Amino acid sequence: MESATNRNIVWLASYPKSGNTWFRAFLSALLKDAPVDINEMATDGIFSGKGTIETVLDMSADYLSVREVEIFQRKAYTHLSTKSSRPLYIKIHDAFTLSPTDGLPLIPEAPVKQAIYLVRNPLDVTLSLANHTGMSVEKIIKKFIINPEGAFVSRRNSSNNQLHQPLGTWSMHAESWLTRPGFPVHFVRYEDMKIRPLETFKKAVTALGIAANEERIARAIEECKFENLQRKEEEVGFREKQVVSSRFFFKGEVGRWKEELSSGQVEQIRQGNEPMMRHFGYW
């Protein structure tokens, strides 16, 4: 295990479409104390990026076995942390799961300083994920939100630029980050980012150990208001947007589900995700 001085990784974790990109934009504006370029954020990629293994370990990640991916991801991120002279803020959508081979976390713990976990009501996540993927709401519910085997990307597709990302149900994902990590995890509700932004972002900045006064935090919040990010996407585009999506920064509203989901859809989501919906106040 690496020494504590080498714990430079900060996971920016979330189930997809839960405010991760918004938070990364805020963090970019805060760290630079300047307007944010949404296509050049001051964060450090995504855990599932195939390019990290290839660049850090100087190898091709095509056609790796599941077991090899586990080993090489751990090695690559431990090496990155060891060689870095600053915190590395890395996006991650993977649930915090254990290897069926060696029983160790698939996400390396030794190089980790801290995690921020962004959580959003799965009823609203469903609508946002449907827009993002171009899938129907019904398909999103069955394939992701209530599916214990839900995941992004197949490792068998060697042409993909990202590796497999296990998700589980929305509740399984949240619970995995709540109960399993052996490092500090600070939870941030999407709804609190909207309703009480200064208080919420300030607590996150404190958890991250970033030295920034309230005025600087407020500037970063203002810079990354949802309508400002929408405007930037309209002006220059956003490379993380899926081709099938009309826009990445779509609506960003709280409570859309009340008007746009049927009672049957709401019941499906609740039945499949009750434990963590109750825990985070979404019941």
Major sheet summary line: 4 strands, parallel
Please give the alpha-carbon distance between the first and last residues.
40 Å
Structural class: alpha/beta
**Low-confidence runs of at least 5 consecutive residues:** none
Counting DSSP H or I runs of 4 or more residues, the number of helices is 12
Order of helices and strands: EHHHEEHHEEHEHHHHHH
Describe this structure in words.
The protein is α/β, with parallel strands linked by helices and 283 residues long. It has twelve helices and six strands. The protein has helices at residues 20-32, 50-57, 66-83, 122-133, 137-145, 170-179, 190-195, 197-208, 214-223, 226-236, 257-260, 263-279; strands spanning 9-14, 88-92, 112-119, 151-152, 165-166, 185-189. The strands form two sheets. Strands 2-1-3-6 form a four-stranded parallel sheet, sandwiched between helices. A two-stranded antiparallel ribbon has the order 4-5. It is globular, with a radius of gyration of 18 Å.
Summarize the SSE layout with pairings.
Elements: E1 9-14, H1 20-32, H2 50-57, H3 66-83, E2 88-92, E3 112-119, H4 122-133, H5 137-145, E4 151-152, E5 165-166, H6 170-179, E6 185-189, H7 190-195, H8 197-208, H9 214-223, H10 226-236, H11 257-260, H12 263-279
Parallel strand pairs: 1-2, 1-3, 3-6
Antiparallel strand pairs: 4-5
Helix pairs in contact: 1-9, 2-3, 4-5, 5-12, 6-12, 8-9
